[in-house]
Amino acid sequence: MRLVVFLFLSAFLLLPRHADAYCGVPEIRATGEYFQRDLVFVGTVTSGHYSLAGGMYRLSVQRIFRGPIQKEFTVYTWDDDVRFPLKTGATYLLFASKDKRGFEIDSCGNSNLLSHATKTIRELQMLSQAAPFGVIEGWVVAETDGIDVSGVRVTVKGKAGVYSAVTDKDGWFHFRAPVGEYKVDFSSGEYYLNAADDFRYDPEGFELHAGETASLQVVSVRHLHQ
Fold first, then answer.
1. Mean pLDDT in runs of 10 for the chain (226 residues)?
2. Angle ∠(168,187,175) on CA atoms, nearest 5
3. Contacts with 210 (C-beta within 8 Å, 6 or more apart), sequence order
């Protein structure tokens, strides 16, 4: 095992790093992250090692919500701002993405100690019983302080129809929609995309599944008129 760990962590230094060492916007719900990750499971850490490159851990599986059926998984995390180190003997609910290195975990979503994940587990269990609808929510944000972001109507379009909602005092909007493909309608000119943002859901095109919560973020133009 020590040799495997050494070889794996050495490979960290040889393979190109991922471009993003930060989390996408906005924060993602568990019922959204479930559909964006390749592996969602509960497991207990049986062994692991952390170095300057990152950490690699082996976990004994207790329950799999999404992904291949196995008794054990090996996951890794980079040593960067979104690292998610694990403790041997602890049990976690983990959301992981698969790449050429294996299954990567990070601190950007809903991975947590199992003892802190009761609500998340309950939400994941309900997905199998979900009706063919999901939720589209998000925020209209201001680039400068003191701008009123309430009362902005945000609209999305898809084959299933056109859906919209008006933001509250915090710029938050929320509505229910049938499963399908959608994109945000920018024709009102009330909001735009910040090209510097890394989106968990692309406002210019995303798919909504049964029980899923898709979280979006756009920027208000109101400050431009002052």
1. 52 51 89 98 96 92 98 96 96 97 96 98 98 98 92 97 97 97 97 91 96 97 65
2. 35
3. 127, 130, 131, 132, 133, 134, 179
The token pair that represents 180 in the structure block: 């399908």
Residue given tokens 């799999």 in the structure block: 64
Q: Where do we find the tokens 């960067």?
A: 80
Q: Does domain 2-127 have CATH number 2.40.50.120?
A: yes
Q: Residue 166: CB partners within 8 Å, gap ≥ 6? A: 151, 152, 153, 154, 173
125 burial class (0-12, 13-18, 19+ CB within 10 angstroms)? exposed
> Two tokens at 194?
């910040």
Fold of 130-225: Immunoglobulin-like (2.60.40)
The one-letter amino acid code at 33 reads: E
Helix (H, G, I), strand (E, B) or coil at 60: strand
Distance CA 46, CA 180 (A): 40
Q: Give CA separation, 33 vs 30, 42, 101, 208, 214, in Å.
A: 5, 15, 20, 12, 9
Answer whether 0.70 is exceeded by the pTM. yes
